[in-house]
Design a protein that fits this description.
- The chain is mainly α.
- Helix content is about 50%, strand content about 10%.
- It has a 3-stranded mixed beta sheet with strand order 3-2-8, covered by helices on one side. It has a 3-stranded mixed beta sheet with strand order 7-9-10, with helices on one face. A two-stranded parallel ribbon has the order 1-4.
- The longest helix is centred in the middle third of the chain and has 25 residues, at about 240-260.
- It is globular.
- It starts with a helix and ends with a helix.
- Bound molecules: D-mannonic acid.
- The site of D-mannonic acid has 9 residues, from helix 9 and helix 13.
Length: about 450
């Protein structure tokens, strides 16, 4: 949008760390791709031309490294999902056993993961006397810039003592809050784009009309005039981040677990269940009570708008897509606000319901008997602790609550929290999700 308004010479060099599909589809199309925007009864399409090239780092690691040390690179943005970083929470220490981190600690000159590549590139830029780039994390992590700063510095010090301190004082890691629902691409995406363009576009993507970007304004090497395209450039992202993670993403995870287990393939189908929609409102109102006020936003309106976005009949957003990586998502979305409510003697019931739904999901079978993969990096560990009889709610709660590092201590130690979760889980197991939802909203 900014290029469209002002022109100029900013461009994006994309790097895929693992897959090759983006490079294979985009490069033969000169980086052009269609963005389809699906509204309730309208479909808009637009060809985006901001990508200069895409590098598949797994195939061309040298090209990826060269891109990162090119003098013209001013900003490195990241959208790699929560689990790709290999960072401990909340302090951002590296997880030495994370596969990409382990590889890069052993091979710092041939890095493959996020932390390894960033540390290598910053070290190299420093050695060559090039200004460092700004690192912009766009993933749904709490205080994403701060967390990533801690991780990159920790990693850098492990491979090049002193580099961490240099990064800490010379590299900026602004925090962000990015919000736009983006379902996985399907054949429908590609055929709608082809019909609109009268030619094939193998890199089309689709999204909803809503879009919100909030970015901490700390770009020592300069940046595009994003504010002209509606980005809120602020001093402190955290009120927006909490609002989004706790209200929108928390509710999204709730719908995903309840919906997937109950057989709703898409979020919009789940929302057509009135009791579920009501439960969702109750959940969001409770989560909103844990927030400070957010400049320019009426939280009641935000809740209504969020529900309407989820219900958008044109968006086929799979509950299983959102349900994945629960152990990475639960803390910032559901467990942190639950802990806050517990400590402040507020209502914990909606959070306990959401956690019970996640635990029910962890059993790996829908109510109609279909087995599925949890799509969680800790899937094996979850299966191992759940081995044995899974009819007993209390033992499931105990097993999952004691997964190392997942639940805050305050929740682990709270009999009332454990009991409330187990009570909902018991209803889910004995009488089903619909009965549990009714009991929650009654
Ligand atoms: C979703 C998010 O998949 C998920 O976990 O909750 O990707 C969500 O769609 C985005 O954060 C919306 O901005």
């Amino acid at each position: 949008d900014t290029l469209d308004l002002h022109g100029g010479d900013w461009r994006i060099a994309g790097v895929s760390l693992r897959g090759t599909a983006a490079a294979e589809s985009l490069n033969p199309q000169d980086g052009l791709y269609t963005l389809l925007v699906r509204d309730r009864d309208q479909l808009h399409g637009r060809v985006i031309a901001s990508l200069a090239q895409v590098i598949a780092a797994a195939q061309q690691p040298r090209l990826a490294r060269e891109a990162l040390i090119a003098p013209g690179i001013k900003i490195v943005t990241l959208t790699v999902t929560e689990k790709a970083y290999g960072l401990e929470r909340p302090d951002g220490a590296v997880m030495p056993e994370h596969p990409a981190v382990a590889h890069d600690l052993a091979n710092p000159e041939d890095p493959q993961g996020v932390l390894g590549l960033l540390a290598w590139a910053l070290g190299e830029r420093r050695r060559r006397g090039l200004a460092p780039f700004t690192i912009l994390c766009c993933d749904n992590l709490p205080s994403n810039g701060r967390l990533l700063r801690a991780g990159v510095c920790d990693f850098a010090d492990r491979v090049a003592p002193g580099l961490g301190a240099w990064i800490s004082s010379n590299v900026s890691f602004p925090c962000t809050m990015v919000d736009r629902i983006t379902p996985a691409v399907t054949q429908q995406t590609l055929s709608d784009a082809a019909a609109m363009l009268a030619c094939k576009d193998l890199a089309a993507v689709e999204t909803e009309p809503f879009s919100m970007w909030v970015v901490e304004d700390d770009f020592p090497q300069g940046r595009p005039a994003w504010e002209d395209a509606g980005v809120l450039m602020v001093d402190d992202v955290s009120p927006y981040e909490h609002m989004k993670l706790r209200v929108l993403n928390g509710a999204h995870s709730l719908v995903a677990y309840v919906g997937h287990v109950a057989g709703h393939v898409y979020v919009r189908d789940a929302l057509s269940d009135e009791v579920l929609a009501h439960a969702l409102d109750t959940y969001m109102r409770c989560a909103a009570q844990t927030l400070q006020s957010v400049a320019g936003i009426d939280l009641a309106d935000y809740i209504v708008a969020t529900r309407q976005r989820f219900a958008n009949p044109a968006i086929a957003h799979a509950t299983h897509q959102i349900a994945m990586d629960g152990t990475e998502k639960l803390p910032q979305r559901i467990l942190d606000p639950a802990r806050d409510c517990l400590m402040q003697h507020r209502d914990i019931v909606p959070f306990a319901f959401a956690v019970a739904a996640w635990m029910r999901y962890c059993l790996g079978v829908t109510e109609s008997g279909q087995h599925y993969s949890l799509r969680d990096p800790r899937e094996d560990e979850i299966k191992a602790v759940l081995r044995g009889p899974t009819e007993d709610a209390q033992s499931i709660v105990t097993a999952l609550m004691t997964l190392p590092g997942l639940f805050p201590l305050e929740l682990r130690d709270s009999p009332v929290w454990r009991r409330t979760v187990a009570d909902f889980l018991r209803i889910m197991l004995a009488s089903g999700m619909a009965a549990a939802l009714s009991s929650f909203v009654s």
